[in-house]
Amino acid sequence: MDMVGYLNTAQESVRSLKETRLAALRPVGEFFDYQRVSKPRDTSEYMRRAGYNVRYFSANYAVIVALLAVYSLITNPLLLIALGFLIGGFLGISRFVPEPIEFNGKVITPQNLYTGLFIIGIPLLWIAAPLSTVFWLIGSSGCVIGAHAGFLEPPVESEYEGIETV
To answer: How many domains does the chain have?
Structure first.
């Protein structure tokens, strides 16, 4: 696939993301409505609130997770470099070296280049500690979303959402 094909695919992906997930974003004023924040009486009320709010604010929570992921990449530059090296190397080899080339009398195949890329890139990625970043992202997202979802009271309309009118 050429560069134009990659751009068209990326544009279609962004468009479908915008139409599906981002269309469900709730207004900021509603998301940060501090007047509805209160301590739940018990665990069952916390779970009821969290269940409703996770469904209702799912697009907002997805944006929060994405922002935390970007923050974690910015604060771990070695991980950013390792991912850029591996992804850029993979794309560069597949784009510019589709067939074997001859260099100084030796034939270099794309498989040799991929092997070299992984021999350098995997240890670099290992040193960058991606698992600790993933676990930090899971923990921080869980704390932020769990606190918001459990302490924000659902609106009164949520009590009547399963009732049919005659």
So the answer is: 1
Q: How far is CA 118 from CA 95, 112, 160, in A?
A: 17, 10, 56
Is residue 73 in some structural domain? Answer: yes
87 is a domain residue: yes
Q: Is residue 21 part of a domain?
A: no
Digits of tens for pLDDT over the chain (166 positions)? Answer: 555 666 677 778 777 766 666 677 888 888 888 899 999 999 999 999 999 999 999 999 999 999 999 999 999 999 999 999 999 999 999 999 889 988 888 999 999 999 999 999 999 999 999 999 999 999 999 999 999 999 999 877 666 566 555 5
The C-alpha atoms of residue 58 and residue 60 are separated, in whole angstroms, by 5
